[in-house]
Amino acid sequence: MERRTFLWQAALGLGALSLGRVQAAAAWKPTRAAQARWAELLDYARWAPSPHNIQPWKLRVVSDTEAELYYDPARLLPYTDPTSAFTIIGLGIFIESLRVAAAPLGLGLDVRPAEALRLDYAATAPTWFARLRLRPGADPAPDRELLKERRTARRAYDGRPVAAAVQQEMATLATAYGHQLSLSSDPALIDFVLDLNCQTLFADLDDAGTRRELSTWIRTTDEQAAHLADGLWSRCMGFPGWLMHNFFFHSERFRAGWKRAVLGRAYRHSMRGTATVAWLQGPFATPADWLRAGALLQRLWLDLSRHGVYLHPFGSVVTNPAAHQQFLTRAGAGPAAPPLWLLMRLGYGPVPPRSFRLTVNDLLMPS
Ligand SMILES: Cc1cc2nc3c(=O)[nH]c(=O)nc-3n(C[C@H](O)[C@H](O)[C@H](O)COP(=O)(O)O)c2cc1C
Q1: Which end of the chain has a smaller Cβ tally under 10 Å, C or N?
Q2: What are the chain's domains?
């Protein structure tokens, strides 16, 4: 096996994949049974979380055991995710979701990603990202129904810290992936994190480029959210649609300090009852690292869902260099600590609204 391919598979913990067989299979039009099998898996995996709910994935069925994963260049974040790390985390989550969906069928998933894994922001058509192959023998996986139950919870929690046994289980899972999950229920640290997230969000949105890119992903009416079936729906964000619209499209109306203060207090109040924050550190230098981080994040998220625990990522604190450093200093992480790639709050609360998703047909490419 070619060394580079082997390294990819070793990095991802994946088995071998014969390229020759894929190409031979590609010459055949997939049968109706092949389409149906992948459609079944896709119907679960389409619920995978992605930054801003961009859902960049597409699938081309090759045969009942093989498919090609593409990304849609119209669904990327070139300005706010310049390295494509967070979008590739999303693709890693999607691949992991297919794996979880395949497990009850007694099937495991082998993956061979593209060699140049950075996303091509200049592409104008769906671009090939990885070959996927189903093989007999399921990979260990949680109940696939969790894929449909999992969701981001951005509203108030009920004040209970995450149970110690769950914290321990999550930390052990992260360690198995070579990452470190730290959790804290220290009220002072929680206040610090919630305040920092709030300030960072405002600071990021003062940047015209960030506002421009994000504004294409906000959905401020129920009709728009249901019709486009993607993006950040105001109901999921816990904000009135008119306020979100004005904030993005008339940001000049929100420059006054007192308006910021009122809005900040409302945003901060929406997160009351938070009693646990957590952060992930680990290898985060290469596309293979980002894919593996995505697999871990989805595993953690599904397991938390199984325990009735909700999660709310705080992406801005990680991607904003000043906030990132402020958090590391406060958390006492030394210069030798592994990279921080996710900060989040965790907790219990009411079932959040479910964000929309593209349909299976939207995601299937012609074979
Ligand atoms: C890598 C990654 C980063 C995310 N960062 C944030 C974030 O900073 N703030 C936030 O509210 N949601 C964040 N999310 C959650 C997504 O917006 C959410 O998954 C998507 O809108 C779909 O909604 P769902 O998780 O409820 O299905 C992130 C998700 C992923 C995968």
Answers
A1: N
A2: 3-148 (3.40.109), 153-347 (3.40.109.10)
